[in-house]
Design a protein that fits this description.
50% of the residues lie in helices and 7% in strands. It is α/β, with parallel strands linked by helices. It has two domains: 357 residues, Metal-dependent hydrolases (TIM Barrel, Alpha-Beta Barrel), CATH 3.20.20; 93 residues, uronate isomerase, domain 2, chain A (Orthogonal Bundle).
């Protein structure tokens, strides 16, 4: 029997062990999509205890605590940090087969040197060990990033953000990790939201102009994109419930937008037309700016309305959506491609049944502009577990070129989440190693080294054009 999470964790063949230890493990990290707050990096936040850095905003853990019957008081309520940690430890011992079990213990091993098991009986011991270590200077936000061998990370930022924290980080000479903003214009597209007109006022202020029609809106977006570009932004990101594509003429969009400006109710179809027009415009702008476009879709959010009203969004009440988006996605990509030229694009669906669909879609729009110009994004959110990663990479290998894959991202709000890259790399090497040892690919270590290092790090550097 293999030891629990030893140095060969998840590596089932000799080839897998060599690929991981000799190649993947030595590569730095590019975290091109995360939700870390740049202000916490700029201020080099220090954490008083393990609950603050582990449980403060991690809705992955919150969901499992609720599944274990834990009262909300111990999750997002006013219980003490020690009490919350105890409830998490009691929950974790039941999480057999869940990636959180592996991630949590990888984090305890890598950052705190603890190689034991966290459960209800060891919670006090782990609490004391972690909290003592967190007092060390090496455990501040900036130093956690540096000791994780992160070379560059991209935050997720609203177009109205002044990016002041990015300016401060850029001027910090002792911190040599690049922290770049990502353009996330969801609120511009969400014309159906009740706070939309209030948001337009904020956008007007940020762009230093009045927004009185759709042409003004496009101008304001251009101005803000130029500002983001000046701050190093080269990636956009869209969080979409599902893909929409309904072609619409400019004068019709003006009527729809004008009606919303006068606070009139907009039909679902007109909402879809507006979002289509915005997405086509933005995609064309991304191509001009040489930005990568990320499309995240397939999530049904805020399903527990009672809890949403009580504690808000991004608190663990979202699920996989099942609205078919393939036709609209293809038509959208084709429309942009016909009008101009598609920007580099990464497609993520939260629904794993879409893996093969995306694998065939990306093949329709590849060209010589870039290696792997249209990417299938890594297994996302509910799928970033062993099963989901193997499924996504196997599908990509079956239908495309796995060797051009740009690899893992954390999609996290935690400074301790970087072992997720290790987890991914171990699974990658085990998958490739199994193919080699089964005679499905030659044991050409020179080529295998290039593939593994590429997926772990090098492909992302080349794809995004990062200057490191």
């Amino acid at each position: 029997m293999k030891a629990f999470m030893d140095e060969d964790f998840l590596l089932s063949t000799n080839t897998a062990k060599k690929l991981y230890h000799d190649f993947a493990a030595k590569m730095p990290i590019i975290d091109y999509h995360c939700h870390i707050q740049p202000g916490e990096i700029a201020e080099d936040r220090k954490f008083e205890n393990i609950t603050q850095v582990w449980l403060e905003s991690d809705h992955y853990k919150w969901r499992q605590m609720r599944a274990n019957g834990v009262e909300e008081y111990y999750i997002t309520g006013n219980a003490s940090d020690r009490e919350k940690f105890q409830k998490w430890a009691e929950t974790l011992e039941k999480a057999i087969g869940n990636p959180l079990y592996h991630w949590s213990h990888l984090e305890l091993q890598r950052y705190f040197g603890y190689r034991g098991i966290l459960n209800r009986d060891t919670a006090q011991e782990v609490w004391e060990i972690c909290n003592a270590k967190l007092q060390d200077f090496s455990m501040s936000a900036q130093n956690l990033i540096k000791q994780s061998h992160v070379k560059l990370l991209c935050t997720t930022d609203d177009p109205i953000d002044d990016l002041k924290w990015h300016k401060i980080i850029k001027e910090e000479e002792s911190f040599d990790v690049q922290v770049l903003p990502t353009w996330r214009p969801d609120r511009i597209l969400n014309i159906e939201k009740s706070d939309y007109l209030d948001y337009l006022k904020e956008l007007s202020k940020a762009a230093d102009m009045e927004i009185q029609n759709f042409q003004d809106l496009k101008k304001a977006m251009r101005k803000r994109m130029e500002y983001f570009k000046s701050m190093g932004c080269c990636i956009s990101d869209h969080g979409l419930t599902y893909m929409v594509y309904i072609p619409v003429k400019e004068n019709e969009i003006e009527k729809i937008f004008s009606a919303r400006l006068y606070n009139k109710k907009i039909s679902l179809r007109d909402t879809a037309k507006f979002k289509t027009a915005c997405m086509v415009f933005l995609a064309e702008e991304y191509e001009k700016l040489n930005w990568v476009m990320q499309l995240h879709y397939g999530c049904k959010r805020d399903n527990n309305r009672k809890m949403y009203k009580k504690i808000g969004a991004d608190t663990g009440f979202d699920c996989i959506g099942d609205i078919a988006s393939g036709t609209e996605l293809v038509d959208f990509l084709n429309a942009v491609n016909e009008r101009k030229n598609l920007p580099k694009t990464i497609l993520y669906s939260l629904n794993p049944k879409d893996d093969e669909l995306i694998g065939t879609i990306i093949g329709c729009f590849q060209n010589s502009d870039a290696v792997g110009k249209i990417q299938q994004g890594s297994a996302w959110w509910f799928n970033d577990n062993k099963t989901g990663m193997v499924k996504q990479m196997t599908s990509l290998a079956n239908l495309g070129l796995l060797g051009n894959f740009i690899g893992m991202l954390t999609d996290s709000r935690s400074f301790l989440s970087y072992p997720r890259h290790e987890y991914f790399r171990r699974i990658l090497c085990d998958l490739i190693g199994s193919w080699v040892e089964n005679g499905e690919y030659p044991k050409d270590m020179k080529t295998l080294e290039k593939i593994v290092k590429g997926i772990s790090y090098n492909n992302a550097v080349e794809y995004f054009g990062f200057q490191l």
